[in-house]
Design goal:
The protein is mainly α. It is built from 7 helices and 3 strands. Helix content is about 55%, strand content about 10%.
Length: about 120
């Protein structure tokens, strides 16, 4: 399966792309493309949140994460939910989108954590 990860920078139309993808989930599914709900209904903020290696503010608050231990639990829960979504249909590709991956993942370790999660 192919994964397309859109991490556009903030204020470049990312919200419009995410809204389009979410509004067209059923059509994408007909073409065997998943725009998952588990990392976020429209904006996949869970992707940046699961990869942060220390608390950075609003993302963790939105995800109800208060510690690294809670982040690790969130990461496992998200992996389980995402696996379930992928198993619902024989998808050929998945698309995920979150602009915070470009502005909130600040170290090689954080980017690596996201890469490892998605692989």
């Amino acid at each position: 399966m192919e994964l397309y990860l859109h991490i556009g920078t903030e204020k470049t139309g990312t919200t419009s792309i995410q809204a389009f993808m979410a509004a067209n989930r059923a059509l994408l599914k007909q073409h065997r493309i998943l725009y998952p709900r588990s990392p976020g209904e429209t904006n996949h903020i869970g992707l940046a949140g699961l990869a942060q290696d220390r608390e950075r503010g609003e993302l963790w608050k939105k995800l109800a994460i208060r510690s690294l231990e809670e982040r690790d639990l969130y990461r496992q829960k998200l992996a389980d939910f995402l696996s379930g979504e992928l198993g619902e249909h024989s998808f050929r590709a998945a698309i995920m989108s979150n602009e915070h991956c470009s502005s909130r993942l600040l170290s090689e370790g954080e980017v690596g954590a996201l890469r490892d999660f998605l692989s």
